[in-house]
Each structure stands twice: as C-alpha cells, then as structure tokens.
UniProtKB/TrEMBL annotation:
One of its GO terms (molecular function) is alcohol dehydrogenase (NAD+) activity. It catalyses: (S)-3-hydroxybutanoate + 2-oxoglutarate = (R)-2-hydroxyglutarate + acetoacetate; 4-hydroxybutanoate + 2-oxoglutarate = (R)-2-hydroxyglutarate + succinate semialdehyde. Residues 240-430 form the Fe-containing alcohol dehydrogenase-like C-terminal domain. Its EC number is 1.1.99.24. InterPro entries: ADH_Fe/GldA, ADH_Fe_C, Alcohol_dehydrogenase_Fe, HOT. It comes from Cocleimonas flava. Pfam families: ADH_Fe_C, Fe-ADH. This is hydroxyacid-oxoacid transhydrogenase. Residues 22-193 form the Alcohol dehydrogenase iron-type/glycerol dehydrogenase GldA domain.
C-alpha cells in the first residue's frame, strides 16, 4: 500500500527530509535535565513555564537538577493558554535582557511554542508576525541557528517538543497562525510521563484528540511525491506531505490512540494508558512535524477565531475558550467523510489502526468508518457534540470557512482539494453527530 501511495509522478518530489530532536522518554527523566543541559554546554538557562506549573513539583525537579549540575537559571512564567504575539514579545525581551546560553521549556504546547518563537525574535529582532507567511506576515526567513533548547512536555497532545513548529495567536486579528523553521526544532526532548498523572480527564481528552488528529491527518495527507520537487534542498518545507517516516510514527500513534485514549481519560490511575498517550503524542509530533497536518487543523483555526461565549468545562481561563484538541476534533468526522473519497484505502488503513469496526465495509464506506470511530471515541470521552457543542449554528458556517481558507498550506496538504463552498459544507456536516 505504502509504495503505491508514494508512487512517483511527473515533477513530483522524489526525496524527503526528516528532522527530530534527541528524544529521552521515561518516568523520572525530568531529573536528568541538568546533565542534559550540561551536555549542551548550557551554563545560564532561561527556564520557560507557566504560572500554574511554576510552584509545582515538575519545576522543582528541573531546578534541583540544574542546581546539581551547577547551572544558573531564571524563570519566565507569564504564559497563558493560547499565547499571543504580545506574550512572545515579552518573552523575547526577557531572553535579551540576560546573557543566556540555553533555553529549557517545561509545560504544554503553549509554553514550548512561546519558547521557540521568543528565541527567534530575541536572536533576529522583529515582531513575530513578520515571520508568518503572507498575507498575515511577511514570510521573513529565519536566517540561522538559535540557542540550544531542551523541551519537556507536561501534556500528551501537541507533540511540540518534537516539532519545528510554533502556533501563536495574533492579538490584533484574534486568530492563530503557524510558523516553522528547521532552526526552531528543540535540540532535545525530555518526555517524562509522570507529568500526565495530575491532568484532569478533560485535559487528557482534549490533548488526546490533538494527538489522534495529528496522526490521522499526517497518515492521510497528500503524498510527498504529489508535491513539486524543490529547487533548493535546504528550503524543502517540513510540511512536505505524507512519507514513509511519517507513516511509521503515525501508524503507531494511531494504534495508541485507538487502544488507550478512553482508558487514559476515564482513569487517572491507569499509568499504562497515560504513559502510552504521552509516547503517542511524541510519535505523532515526530510524524506531523515531518509531513504537516491538513483540513481538521486548518478548520480548527476558524473555530478558535470565531468561538462564541462558551468556555469548555474544566478550564480555568477567561471565557470564551475552546481547547485546541476540541477545536480540531469537532470537525474531524465531517472532514474525513470528505477526504476519504480521494484516498479510501488510506482512510480504511488508518481506521484499522484506530480499531474501527469495519465489518462489511467497502472502500465506498471509508469516510463513514473513520468518522464513526472518531465519534465513538468522542462519546466515550465526553467531547462536545460537534460545532453545536461549542456554541456554533448553521448561521456561522460561512464566516468559519472564510476564516479557515487562509490556512493555505494545510488545505493544500489534504488528499482532496477544497474551496470555500467545500469548507462550508464540511462545517455544516460538523454541526452535530449524535
Ligand atoms: Fe494540533
């Protein structure tokens, strides 16, 4: 199947590039951070975290480890969920106001993404918006290496510790955008699954669907051989489409999501499930960080841009707020119904990894099989019932589509082309599922 999917085509790419950090995974590995920082020649570290984690045990473990290794550190913790460009500016000022020779980030995707973006803006001063692709920004290239960075995730979802991508909200536009550069890839990822033990079921569910969708999107993404050859090999984007590497990591991440997502959400004492989800999140990061996501992530940006007055239960933030994983999964069943028509075998393979019931299904049923399995997992983890579950109605679909159509690269990475009307139809199909 794989070799058929990557069959060469005229003018299509015939090679792909993979980049991942040095990865350490295991219970208790946060205590290794000091020695790992030493190995990267760090002596004065900027430690990024958030105000919730700042006084907690993970930061205590990391700072004790740094002290033991004789490494100085200063903490920056003014990072909220869904961080914006103003936060990045503040973080960049913090970086430039001290003579740091390394960065350590301890937190969820928001913390790690701010660390990456701030390192760019501190080393090559410019507003972060300039680095986003036009028309939002200027597409300013990042010219060279940044400070060494050790990323330590405390949630199982974004996979940001393993990607060269940062997602930042532009406050003026109230919309999130993605920027990426090989220089933004952390040097090391230290993944300690004990960090997942204290997460609420809501947080595990939301981040778990982010991991699931990363894996499902990169497995079903347009094949890298369908993208044009690049003239400059150093300019090959990491959003290069599905490839044999992303297949390998995404397949295992899908199997983990299929087997452990409901268990990890419903039973905080199920260490096996939560450890597996942490590993699945890293794998999915290593996969989509080298292939790109597609429509569910593109459509999630419209959802977070236009969300109404609903704050998802269990989050201590100002209203309105829809967690990233939920903003992605509310449209995912409808999206895969749409994309399966282009590559039904691929979608059925992915459904198999997710443990979908495929009895009697043919390729014509591929979209429905994938959608039904996602819906089953959503219902098993108390995820809102589609867009209506987070406050949208049919009256919103045009504005949602107009917002999301700006995510050009992700939309082009889908296996099936889509225009504004197609996006409206997907949003309409995503209003409710049960
Ligand atoms: Fe995501």
């Amino acid at each position: 199947m794989a070799c058929q999917y990557f069959a060469p085509c005229d003018h299509g790419a015939d090679s792909f590039t993979i980049a991942i950090p040095k990865v350490t995974f295991g219970r208790g590995t946060l205590a290794e951070v000091g020695e790992r920082a030493q190995s990267l020649k760090m002596s004065s570290v900027a430690l990024f975290t958030d105000n919730f984690l700042k006084e907690g045990p993970y930061i205590e473990t990391v700072t004790n480890s740094l002290k033991k290794a004789g490494i100085d550190y200063q903490v920056f913790s003014d990072i909220l969920i869904e961080p914006d460009d103003v936060c990045v500016d503040d973080a960049a000022k913090f970086l430039t106001s001290h003579d740091f020779d390394g960065v350590i980030s301890v937190g969820g995707g928001s913390v790690i993404d701010v660390a990456k973006a701030a390192m760019v803006c501190a080393k090559f001063p410019a507003p972060v918006r300039d680095y986003f692709a036009p028309p939002v920004g200027e597409g300013k290239p990042i010219p060279g290496p940044l400070l060494p960075h050790i990323a330590c995730p405390t949630t199982a979802g974004t996979g940001s510790e393993c990607t060269s991508i940062s997602v930042i909200r532009i406050r003026e536009l109230n919309t999130k955008f993605v920027f990426a550069s090989p220089y933004m890839l952390p040097d090391q990822a230290v993944i300690d699954p004990t960090c997942c033990e204290s997460l609420t079921p809501k947080a595990v569910a939301s981040t778990g669907f982010d991991l699931l969708s990363h894996a499902l999107e990169c497995y079903t993404a347009r094949a890298y051989t369908q993208w044009d050859k690049v003239k400059n090999p150093n300019a090959r984007p990491l959003t290069q489409g599905a490839n044999p590497w992303s297949d390998l990591a995404a397949t295992q991440a899908l199997k983990i999501a299929g087997e452990y997502l409901i268990r990890g959400v419903t039973d905080a004492s199920d260490h096996e499930a939560r450890d597996q989800l942490m590993w699945g999140s890293a794998l999915a990061g290593m996969a989509f960080g080298n292939s790109g996501t597609h429509l569910p992530h593109a459509l999630s940006y419209g959802v977070t841009h236009l969300m109404h007055d609903i704050t998802t239960e269990g989050y201590d933030v100002k209203s309105p707020f829809v967690p990233h994983g939920i903003s992605v999964v509310v449209t995912a069943p409808a999206t895969f119904r749409y994309t399966a028509e282009a590559t039904p075998e691929r979608h059925l393979e992915a459904a198999t990894f997710l443990q979908a019931d495929q009895r009697g299904a043919s390729t014509a049923d591929a979209g429905e099989v994938v959608a039904n399995r996602i819906i089953e997992l959503m219902r098993g983890t108390n995820i809102p019932n589609g867009l209506s579950g987070v406050g949208f109605t049919e009256n919103d679909v045009t504005r949602l589509a107009e917002s999301s159509i700006r995510q050009g690269r992700a939309i082009a990475n889908a296996p099936r082309e889509s225009n504004l009307v197609d996006l409206e139809n997907i949003y309409r199909d995503a209003i409710s599922y049960w």
